[in-house]
Structure prediction request, 642 residues.
Amino acid sequence: MKRELTDDRICLLCAEPQLPNGITKNGRFFCQTCDREWILEKRKIPRIGKNILSSKEKTEFLLDNLSLFNSAMELEDLMQRFTELISSRLKRDKVAVFITNLELGEIKLAYYSSRQKTLQRAIKRITLDYDLSYGVLIEAMAKGEPCFYKFSEQKHPFYEFYSKLTGTKSQLVIPILYANTAVGMVTIDYEEEDYSDFIEDQEILQLVVGQFAVSLRNSLLFSKSENQSKNFQSLHTAALTLSQLYLNNHDEMIRMILLTLSGIVESSLTCLIERTLESSKAKIFKLYRDLENYQIHTETEIIDVEKIHSILETKETITIDPITNTSFVNIGIEGKESMIFPLTLENGTNCVFILTKQENRFPQDEIEALNAFVSLARITMENSNLYQNLSNKERLEKEIEIAKEIQSTLLPRKAPEAEGFSFGGFMVPARGIGGDYYDFILSPNRNELFICIGDVSGKGVAAGLVMATVRTILHSLVRVKDSPWEILNDINNYLYSSYKEAITPRFMSMILLRWNLITGEVQYSGAGHGNFYHHQAESKALTMIETEGVILGIQPDISAFRNESKLRFDSGDTILLYTDGVTEARNSEGTQFGEPQLKSSFLSWITLEPKNILERIYSELKEFVKEQEQHDDITMVAVRKI
Prediction:
């Protein structure tokens, strides 16, 4: 018998009229169209919510998700694509993914998708303790059940903060369950309190959140194992560098150890307490790292042993709440958790490394990496003590031999693998060990390339130490900062704070370019280094690009010298960067090679590959100076867009 229209039953998820396949309690049924249990709606004219998906759209949504989850991608890419897919399909502006870390007892915002990019950047560092006092968010995670709630009904101050920051009045929470354990949650922010369509979003998200849980879990495990592998590779490289390059400079060696330790984990304060045998005083080296602005500065102080007795008596690696320990208060250490790594050198020197986090705790994989590096750092410190016993002649020969070898490994061994580009670069030091520096740093997504060239004041081992340190800082900064000027500013802060009280201050000039390999746009900033050349293939014109700025390390604040410029780099274009060792090279008559000769030589060989251009320029320079002694490092870099 034909049913009356008034008896049509509408599935609110797929919006198709279907007879229920067995009515269950509270009017729920199993829809034969979308294969989901859903609320029946009985009406003459179907009412469809504004975000509900048709059968075809739902199928496309599921296929998009399957394609996404089957792809091999890094964690951040997975988050970005998943939230963007939800935003696009459900037409929601603010979607977030939180990840649970039960080991640390915290829930961290892993990704926040919004059309407001400033909001997206401002909100990215939110972390919650896995504590029921936070209210409904933690309760939803603990129960593993979805929920919709109003911010006005929540008592914890976090909700007021989040509401003011994002404009959110209510929120839908969908726990991400893997093996019945919440590994995270997906949230959608709404700007109204009584948002009636949330149930449609909930049902649609529950279709895919199970698949996402598997992909998220796999991505987290892969990321963890990859980070561990990278950590130990970095530790090995850093240990070799420390053991060989810093043997004759104790304080610089300690600074480099602390810098490496703080780079392994996000530690706001890293310090070393050093007490020689039976001394009543101890020396404390501190390295502060501003995790928000990526600023670094160091300081040292002398303190009475009695004030830090409990720290020096520590015999094994432990974690501690610094607020509860008087010794930590005496040396100005505060935060959520500190790690203590004690060790005693063969000469009886008592050393204690301390790392501190302000807002979270140390996970086990970080502790393992830190333990490994502290062991390697101990070898470096022991080698340094042994090295001090060498004769002056042996020490000097060893110093030059080792430093020259290490410096050659710090410069690029091969051109970056950037499709459509050709590179060339080399440095010829004046005294075996140079203070010049050049580098190519390709971003992990291969969309951006940083190119730099610089010149440290002075020559020899001292300049080489500064060059190696700046390289370490630069490689760290380009992963977290986009602006070349901001990176130069941070390097200036480090150089000034580290060498302002040195007998011989250390300065450095630099040009830093940020090259967008997709658009061809080049953004650059200068730090008192001078000029570089840009040859345009289409017009065959050669332009001298004048950079500005001030030499790094001279003064604490260089904001008045801020400079940022852009240029367009088209197919066939070539750039040439160089240090003053090229233009100031002199012949027997005292005449400099000079800018005009460099320009002429560059144009003469412009049809060659970049590395061959540099070889020909250097050959002409050597022919010009003949047997004259080289007084400065000679460094050049050339890049062409094919």
Notes: The longest strand covers residues 181-190. The chain is about 35% helix and 25% strand.
